[in-house]
Amino acid sequence: MNRLEARGLGCSRGSARLFRDITFEAGAGEWVALRGPNGSGKTTLLRCVAGLAHADAGETLWNGASIAREREAFHAALLYAGHLPGIKDDLSAQENLHASLALRGVAPAPAALAAAIDQVGLAARQRIPARKLSAGQRRRIGLARLALDPAPLWLLDEPLTALDDQGQALFERMLAAHLAGGGLAVISTHHALDPAPAREVRLGA
Fold this sequence. Notes:
With 205 residues, the chain is α/β, with parallel strands linked by helices. The protein is 32% helix and 26% strand. The strands form two sheets. Strands 6-7-8-3-9 form a five-stranded parallel beta sheet. The protein has a four-stranded antiparallel beta sheet with strand order 2-1-4-5, covered by helices on one side.
């Protein structure tokens, strides 16, 4: 059973301390919500957990081992999505998915790719350059990526940005399915989501 642990994480930006002594854990079927006002350090904390930013103190463990020592195994299990959608404007939804998944060594079958694109409501627009899509439609490309990548650990930074009510409901269904399948997640969000988090980490209090 997969398990993520953050132990005593702390980080500063210049002379300003963003957070200190942040400790939490998540097991299979659980997700952790990171909450706090803008500028409180949620994105930095998420990047520290992912090993993409240096923490001044503390460590992240994956299945009991420090990610600093087991980086390859951790990154193989990790799907990280930042605040920006990470979409290339000149590529279509279909091409963006192929490119982003290839970086993770994932090659979905054509039927699975088509099903994911249809699931997020982009079947009629899958070959249109991303620059011609709305912000919400571009965000839905990221939702299709969640459906196609088998990574057990999701680290997501404000995944509901630009999504309408239908998009939020779709994300909630995808999150529920991910957790039901033994996945786990840490999500920075201002929204109340269903399923509810196993625990919350509040910054800037």
